[in-house]
Amino acid sequence: MNNLFIATYLALKEVIRNRGRFLLVALVIALITVLVLFIAALGEGLSDANRQYVANLDAQLIVFLEKSDYSITASRLETNTIKTVRRVEGVADAGAIYTSNSEIVSLPEPQKISMLGVDAGHPGMPPLIDGRYFRGGEAREAVMDMSVAQRTGLQIGDEIEIRSTQGTEDEFYTLKIVGLVDKQAYFFQPTIFVPAATWELMRPQPEADLNSDTPYPNIIAVKLEDPAQVEIIKQRLQEQVPNIEVADIETTINNIPGYTAQQGTVQTQAVFTLLIGILVIGGFFQIQILQKVPQIGVLKAIGSSNFVVGLSAVIQIIIVTAMGVGIGATLNYLFSLGLPPSIPLAFNGTRSLIAIALLLFIGPLGGMVSIIYAVRIEPLKALRLG
After folding, report:
1. Burial class (CB in 10 A: 0-12, 13-18, 19+), 206
2. For a designed S-S bond to 367, which of 46, 203, 317, 344 qualifies (C-beta 3.0 to 4.6 A apart)?
3. How far is it, in rounded angstroms, from Cα 249 to Cα 239?
4. Residue 116 is part of which domain span?
5. What local confidence, expressed as pLDDT, does residue 130 receive?
6. What angle do CA 81, 85, 87 make, to 5 degrees?
7. Chosen domain end from 242, 275, 300
8. 119 belongs to a structural domain
């Protein structure tokens, strides 16, 4: 206990006496912390923007067209497939999902959106947080994701105008917002939900499809009576329903175009940032130890043990690293408050805590070389008497 007190006293005393130098290093660590937390939030935000709707589906399995390689955009199922899926034993409910892109033009700045056709009350339609579901048929009503509201200021009861390319001509349709849902971004874009028949009428389509009024679903979300029987029902669906392939939610997410590569890139950036942090911290404390070799020699000459010298260096590194991480985390929080909602940042508590723990760990890790060097200093050589 006495050794711990002496080591702590020595560490704090030096930090206070050389506060300008140590504050500068703490600020460098703070910048590294901001960068690490920003990359972690960016990775989580990009991941959410890409997979949010699929990840939040009230379903356990997704039905695709056979040989579509679990790609939502490449899948286009027959209209009667939904009825066949619902008749399979073990299926509690199923909902067809129709996907397309569109644009709201009745705003000061046009807003790109994902327009999804779904059946209210079935899997695929997210739970409401306000308002009501749209009516069936070709009702000119829509349920809007909160991300659309945040970016545009639209509210329940407002009307929006949608532009859609029909063949070679642009057509314009009016929709009334009747409900709100939350966390339903699809392929990086905010989302609106409309009835299937309305979706078929308003979706962008080539000249060859203009005479068709039958909506073909891209995928079918399947909710099971017993979620533990995912593999059994998956096999049963593939045996009883023709021309389909079935995947669970995780497989569907991993096959979203660019999702895996995107996450790999962000994680690689985070790892290299941590490595840079280790080198920066290690380099500083190595220089610090080299500059105070005579002082360490004096400490050892008057009886301080290698344990006290090493522990003092460790405590000093921990103090400076904790200061830097604390400043960086605070700056990161203040920085996040001023960002517009269009920037896909999501500060996940668990990932942020892991990143902070790693940053606190890399301090002693980066200073390990300097600690080893400090305990190996010979008093006589340090004082140039050997």
Report:
1. exposed
2. 317
3. 20
4. 79-242
5. 92
6. 120
7. 242
8. yes
Q: How confident is the model at residue 89 (pLDDT cuts 50, 70, 90)?
A: very high
**Residues 215 and 357 both lie in one domain:** no
Same domain, 45 and 123: no
**125 in a structural domain:** yes
Q: Are both 223 and 87 inside the same structural domain? A: yes
Question: Rounded to two decimals, what is the model's pTM?
Answer: 0.75
Q: Are both 194 and 279 inside the same structural domain?
A: no
Residue 59: inside a domain: no
Q: pLDDT digit string (tens) for 22-78?
A: 888 888 888 888 888 888 787 777 777 778 889 889 899 999 999 888 888 889 999
Q: What is the 3-state secondary structure (H, E, C) of the chain?
A: CHHHHHHHHHHHHHHHHCHHHHHHHHHHHHHHHHHHHHHHHHHHHHHHHHHHHHHCCCCCEEEEECCCCCCCCCCCCCCCHHHHHHCCCCEEEEEEEEEEEEEECCCCCCEEEEEEECCCCCCCCCCCCEECCCCCCCCCEEEEEHHHHHHHCCCCCCEEEEEEEECCEEEEEEEEEEEEECCCCECCECEEEECHHHHHHHCCECHHHCCCCCCCCCEEEEEECCHHHHHHHHHHHHHHCCCEEEEEHHHHHHCCCCHHHHHHHHHHHHHHHHHHHHHHHHHHHHHHHHHCHHHHHHHHHCCCCHHHHHHHHHHHHHHHHHHHHHHHHHHHHHHHHCCCCCCCCCCCHHHHHHHHHHHHHHHHHHCHHHHHHHHCCCHHHHCCCC
Asked whether 113 and 191 are in contact (CB, 8 A), the reply is yes
Looking at residue 282, its pLDDT comes to: 76
Residues 203 and 329 in one domain: no
Q: Is residue 93 part of a domain?
A: yes
How large a percentage of the chain has pLDDT more than 70?
Answer: 93
Asked if residue 374 and residue 268 are part of one domain, the reply reads: yes
pLDDT score at 383: 60
156, 178 Cβ separation under 8 angstroms: yes
Q: Which of 58-67, 240-249, 372-381 bottoms out in mean pLDDT, i.e. has the lowest?
A: 372-381
**201 and 308 share one domain:** no
